[in-house]
Specification:
Conserved hypothetical protein from pyrococcus furiosus pfu- 392566-001, ParB domain, 3 domains, four-stranded mixed beta sheet
Length: about 220
């Protein structure tokens, strides 16, 4: 039998770190959506475009991730939007995973779970490959993915084609404007336009999202 390699201080520290990662999952099951308790400390607000995108995924695929519930408090720790949509849709059964956390631990997980996920960076090449495999007939999912690919530079937004998409008979009350930007200005304008579009800026006089985005930015600048 080969001699066992002496345990280094680094190995011992790594082993100790792994040993303290407790498994706090204590069960799983199915609950009625209207019986699940929203967490009173939930700070997330879900805009309509997010609700529509999540509804689209649930419609097209279904449940692929369980709602997390703290067994001690019965509060939802993760999955508020899915539960809310299930209630609105009349869905009764929600897949649940139960964890056992103190109130202090529950607050920590609630405060960090989504923000830690949001810290992830994007590999544009991998995202481009992934988008080639993705198809959907859900408009909200399509809009979300379009915004994602534009924000990450995977697909360049085609601002020039916006006016051409307006039917000929509807062009009369509109004007097409063209701007020249320096290379150093382009990214700032792209990001601002994409954020304005994602925020849902609208005008009763215009259905074009790009035009509404530019108008919204100008309106905010003038009326702050």
């Amino acid at each position: 039998m080969p001699a066992r390699r002496p345990t280094s201080r680094k190995d011992a520290a790594n082993d100790a770190a792994v040993n303290v990662w407790q498994n706090r999952i204590v069960g799983e099951g199915v609950e009625r959506a209207d019986q699940l308790l929203a967490n009173p400390m939930n700070f997330r607000i879900h805009p309509k475009n997010q609700q529509d995108a999540m509804t689209g995924v649930l419609n097209q695929v279904g449940w692929v991730q369980r709602v997390i519930v703290n067994k001690r408090t019965n509060h939802i720790v993760d999955g508020h939007l899915r539960v809310s949509l299930a209630i609105s849709a009349g869905a009764q059964d929600v897949p649940v995973i139960y964890v056992d956390l103190t109130e202090e631990e529950e607050a920590l997980v609630l405060a960090t779970l989504d923000p830690i996920s949001a810290m992830a960076a994007t590999d544009a090449d991998k995202l481009r490959e992934l988008m080639e495999l993705v198809s959907t007939d859900e408009p909200a999912i399509g809009a979300m993915l379009a915004a994602l690919t534009e924000d990450t530079g995977v697909i360049e937004p085609d601002w020039a084609s916006a006016f051409d998409s307006v039917p000929s008979g509807d062009k009369e009350p509109f004007q097409q404007m063209t701007f020249t930007l320096a290379d150093s200005q382009v990214e700032t304008v792209k990001v601002a336009m994409s954020k304005a579009i994602k925020s849902g800026v609208t005008s009763p006089d215009n259905e074009n999202s790009n035009g509404n985005a530019l108008w919204g930015i100008a309106h905010a600048y003038l009326h702050g």
